[in-house]
Here is the input.
Amino acid sequence: MIIKDAKFLISNENPEKCPPQNKPEYAFTGRSNVGKSTLINMLCNRKNLAKTSSTPGKTRLINHFLINNSWYLVDLPGYGYARVSKKEKGKFEKLTPGYINNRKNLMCIFVLIDVRLKPQKSDLTYMEELGEAEVPFAMIFTKSDKPGKNKTVQNVEIYKKEMLKKWEELPPMFISSSITKEGREEILEFIDNINKKW
Here is the structure.
């Protein structure tokens, strides 16, 4: 897939005010500081489409982008150790389920995982909840340029073994780097193949 056009549409804290459900939609989420905004910019080949920050937890709204006038890319609030008050944290923790449960055009949620880390409870729990709710999702292991190829492969295998303790089969998995653009073509091809069935 070639990204010819990518534009920001709307930021929202009310799922009911999201764009019309007339196009396939793909959401991206993950623990704070996993490199979500950087990955979105890399996929769309734009430097500042999604706002990046050195402060974890900056994305606190549902952000919709229109890609090639044919599908929506959604930047969801992260989860984990965002430096916000308990009240505010509770507010946007409720935001994501409200969005997921109300978007019939949501084709897949990409859950981003920092490939350098051992399996984190917050990630595993989040994916278990998606599985129980029968929400389609795929995993993207980010920052693969940092540990190196061999270590990245080892860490992904560790993750697979941990998940197979509870899962009968694993979701689609991608290895990516916003620096080397590893995984970009594979992720976009995955989206394109789903779009063709829309």
Notes: The helical segments are 36-44, 86-102, 121-132, 149-163, 184-195. The two ends are 16 Å apart (CA to CA). Confidence is low (pLDDT under 50) at residues 53-58, 87-93. The first strand starts at residue 6 and ends at 12.
